[in-house]
Amino acid sequence: MKQDDAVAPVIAAMLVLAVIVTFFAVWNATAIPSMKAQAEVSHLHEAEGGMLRFSSDISAAASSPSGMILSEQVPLGGGDILYSATKSGGVLEVQEDAHPYMRILLYNASSSVLPVDDRTFVLSNISYQPTGNFWQDQGYVWSHGYVNVTRGQKEVPLEYYTMQDVQYNLAGALFNSGVGAYGNDPGTCSVVIIKGVNLVPAQTASSLSGNGIGALTLNSSIASDKFFNVTTMNVSIRWTGGNSPLTGFPRAMHDAANASLANNLESSCTNIHFDPVRSTPRTIALIIDPVPNVTVIRQTADITIGTR
What we know:
Elements: H1 2-63, E1 68-75, E2 89-96, E3 102-108, E4 117-121, E5 124-131, E6 138-143, E7 146-151, E8 154-157, H2 171-174, E9 175-182, E10 185-201, E11 207-210, E12 213-227, E13 230-237, H3 248-266, E14 272-274, E15 283-288, E16 295-307
Parallel strand pairs: 10-16
Antiparallel strand pairs: 1-12, 2-5, 2-11, 3-4, 3-13, 5-6, 6-7, 7-8, 9-10, 12-16, 13-15, 14-15
């Protein structure tokens, strides 16, 4: 009997230990993954917010008449909790688009065949892709002024129901125009100002990986070039692809450039006219009367996107 009394506490201790081990096994199998997934969701919301804020920064820099420097934080990794400090990681990357989105050609009276200026303008895309995510491999891609949510090879707009609903509001900031009157004649213009925007990756810091706090950086500068006695100006929107009708961003870009030129040039200057003969679905052509001489000031905003 005494022997049974001695064994009972040992059995009780083993049963308590078994309950504790079972509890921690269930805790590690269910509660910890759930908490890490919830922490990962919060991390992805922060990454999403950083991408959306940076999208607004790009729009502000593109439409600004002066240069600026801006940055937004984007957490690369997350999912760490009190009971498990292991974090996922992520990659931030900026890549230039394969094709320019706009081309501006200027001709003067001395050369109606060869342009005195031929400038192309490019955009880039910005992506965040997670690594070892504790919830799901959800990433984000900024392109043409809006943000897509990605999962594998699939992409859907973040702020719109479908791609058909996407509003390419950035297009209105990528091209702008203005005029200066000739002498005391407010209907005749002797100065035309046009502005295009380049969005390019930084040469030395266009990608970043890890699990800490990363940042997207923006540095914009504006340069001006003058071209005298201009008689013809072409603004081509994604001229590659023949004369097929434009859709999506190219269509929005064409409409924005056409509206800017119509509102600021043709409606204010009797010596500047749209050319229906040389205009195509992808090109807006303007004819500028040879008298008085017109000077075109082409401004180029170069926006460099980097990571740190």
